[in-house]
């Protein structure tokens, strides 16, 4: 495992962090984590050098932002001495904060859920213009200072989902030690983007990257045109290796979080991480990634499949609908497109189809990508009518 300095914290963190958002589950129930498989995966990662475990209050929950099962799972997985081998990162649910007292209440609850007396890296979760205004007015700085002083957290940080000007405002407002941003070869200029990443790094703020594989979109069932670009390389790599190596090529990135769902994914990512030196990709290899990026940008909807929009009050399978519309735009001829329409009709239940959207807007309130979900669902309904 390779390690990098985490900004002004001077901590050395593994370049690969274990994201506990997409753990294996039983019977498709996000709250029913398969402990046998998931604990084996996480401990295997730790045994092979991972020292950064990322979770959050709502992970493996019902999609409504309340308490999920990820934090209690981490507590179970880190028994038998594993807690002492890692840094835990978790997050204050900013959307649930109504008073200054709420901040302490949620932190104390998380310490209990994680069965630990301190959290190493504590983030204010999913900051955007709205949540930033709320927590700032309610005293987030005093809260973080006091939590560091009394030892409940070691390092304060934030995760981010909004535009660059908001990101810079947040960076400049407090003595943050680290931050977490979305960054991959499709999202180099999305949200904080490369400019925000460099802006924070220049101030000594450690950089954690989320969605390096875009929720698996850069790995699973990639278009032939993307694979053709990768096939031009002298060194053959999997799509996951291309995506991860591209992120790790940036020396400002300290830790890259991967939400791994199988032991095979853990093994593959560990192998890649062992060679993840910054600046190691050649110009030819970077050009190949650029070609793959151009091919990928035919995608209609930039959905990562995080399912923050779920459950839909009307029962619409929002991520599922976006998967089909994106696949539709990758197809080359009408015969293939008509076949996909038949598959859509067979696999997406009538209640789950885009045509059932009632335009309540609940999904858009929760989408960290700020996607125009209602308009995109209308388009899906038109295409697959």
Terminal residue distance: 50 Å
Structural class: alpha/beta
Uncertain segments are none
Net shape: globular
Main sheet attributes: strand count, strand direction, barrel closure: 8 strands, parallel, barrel
Helix content: 40-55%
**Total DSSP E strands:** 10
What is the name of the CATH architecture of the largest domain?
A: Alpha-Beta Barrel
CATH class of the largest domain: Alpha Beta
What is the N-to-C order of secondary-structure elements (H for helix, E for strand)?
EEEHEHEHEHHEHEHEHHEHHHHHH
Number of domains: 2
Strand order of the largest sheet: 3-4-5-6-7-8-9-10
CATH domain fold name of the largest domain = TIM Barrel
> How many helices does DSSP assign?
15
User: Overall pLDDT, averaged?
Assistant: 94
Report the C-alpha radius of gyration, rounded. Answer: 21 Å
Name the CATH superfamily classification of the largest domain: NADP-dependent oxidoreductase domain
GO molecular function: iron-sulfur cluster binding; metal ion binding
Protein name: Aldo/keto reductase
Pfam families: Aldo_ket_red (PF00248), Fer4_9 (PF13187)
Keywords: Iron, Iron-sulfur, Metal-binding
Topology readout:
Elements: E1 3-5, E2 12-14, E3 16-19, H1 35-47, E4 52-54, H2 70-77, E5 87-92, H3 100-114, E6 119-127, H4 129-138, H5 140-149, E7 153-160, H6 164-173, E8 178-182, H7 193-202, E9 206-210, H8 224-230, H9 239-248, E10 255-258, H10 263-273, H11 283-296, H12 318-330, H13 334-347, H14 362-366, H15 373-383
Parallel strand pairs: 3-4, 3-10, 4-5, 5-6, 6-7, 7-8, 8-9, 9-10
Antiparallel strand pairs: 1-2
């Amino acid at each position: 495992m390779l390690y990098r300095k985490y900004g002004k914290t001077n901590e050395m963190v593994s370049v690969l962090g274990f994201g506990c958002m997409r753990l294996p589950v039983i019977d498709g129930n996000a709250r029913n984590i398969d402990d046998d498989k998931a604990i084996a995966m996480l401990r295997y990662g730790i045994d092979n050098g991972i020292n950064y475990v990322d979770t959050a209050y709502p992970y493996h929950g019902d999609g409504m932002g309340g308490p999920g099962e990820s934090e209690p799972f981490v507590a179970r997985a880190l028994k038998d001495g594993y807690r002492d081998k890692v840094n835990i990162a978790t997050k204050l649910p900013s959307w649930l904060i109504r008073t200054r007292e709420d901040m302490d209440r949620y932190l104390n609850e998380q310490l209990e859920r994680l069965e630990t007396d301190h959290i190493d890296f504590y983030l204010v979760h999913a900051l955007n213009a709205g949540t930033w205004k709320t927590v700032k007015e309610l005293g987030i700085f005093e809260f973080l200072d006091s939590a560091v002083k009394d030892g409940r957290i070691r390092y304060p940080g934030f995760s981010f989902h909004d535009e660059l000007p908001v990101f810079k405002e947040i960076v400049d407002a407090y003595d943050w030690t680290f931050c977490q941003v979305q960054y991959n070869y499709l999202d180099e200029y999305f949200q904080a983007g490369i400019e925000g990443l460099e802006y924070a790094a220049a101030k000594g703020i450690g950089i954690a990257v989320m969605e390096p594989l875009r929720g698996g979109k850069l790995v699973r069932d990639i278009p032939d045109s993307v694979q053709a670009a990768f096939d031009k390389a002298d060194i053959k790599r999997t799509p996951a290796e291309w995506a991860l190596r591209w992120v790790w090529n940036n020396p400002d990135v300290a830790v890259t979080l991967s939400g791994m769902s199988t032991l095979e994914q853990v093994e593959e990512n560990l192998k890649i991480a062992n060679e993840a030196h910054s600046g190691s990709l050649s110009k030819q290899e970077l050009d190949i990634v650029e070609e793959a990026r151009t091919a990928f940008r035919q995608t209609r909807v930039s959905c990562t499949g995080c399912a923050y929009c779920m459950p839909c009050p009307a029962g619409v399978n929002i991520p599922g609908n976006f998967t089909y519309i994106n696949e539709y735009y990758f197809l080359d001829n009408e015969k293939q497109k008509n076949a996909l329409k038949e598959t859509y009709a067979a696999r997406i239940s009538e209640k789950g189809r885009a045509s059932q959207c009632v335009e309540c807007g609940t999904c858009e309130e929760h989408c960290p990508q700020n996607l125009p979900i209602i308009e995109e669902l209308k388009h899906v309904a038109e295409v697959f009518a």
